Amino acid sequence: MALLEAATRVVLMGIGATVIMDLWLMLMRALGVPTLNFALVGRWVGHLCHGRFSHTRIGQARPVHREAALGWIVHYATGIAFAVLLACIQGLAWLQAPTPAPAIIVGAATVVVPLFLIQPAMGAGFASSRTPAPGRNCLRSVMTHTVFGLGLYLSAVLIAFVS
């Protein structure tokens, strides 16, 4: 497989998996389950670009210009980065004949980023420890990232089929 083809597959896989994760989050919101507002991710990144890494409560931090758009861009770029991680771990042959376990495992493992980096930096504490329901929030994060992993697999299967 040529490098450009592999790169295209990985980018599309990351976008596809993120779309599947977003559909999951839409379902959760429709069921009344609170989910992350990606504008707050944009706010955090905006402040990060100005040298501030952590906040007591990101919702109370000064809004940044176009934070919603920035948050969504970061969200999809992160999905692509996680797809790159999967491709690096599994190799290019996996892209041609994807199997579910590696994608789901990598997807679920990506939960360490929000639990131990993003949430503490945004003021929610390690593994949501500063929220009213840390256990429930952690479980939701694990489920969402597992759905992302399933999305990595389903996207890879579709891309391999079309190719």
Automatic annotation (TrEMBL):
Cited Pfam families: DUF2938
Membrane-spanning residues: 6-27, 72-95, 101-121, 142-162
Coiled-coil ranges (or none): none
Keywords associated with the record: Membrane, Transmembrane, Transmembrane helix
Xref: InterPro entries: DUF2938
Domain of life according to the entry: Bacteria
Keyword Transmembrane helix included in the entry's annotation: yes
Record has Transferase as a keyword: no
Protein name: DUF2938 domain-containing protein
Species: Microvirgula aerodenitrificans
Higher taxonomy: Bacteria, Pseudomonadati, Pseudomonadota, Betaproteobacteria, Neisseriales
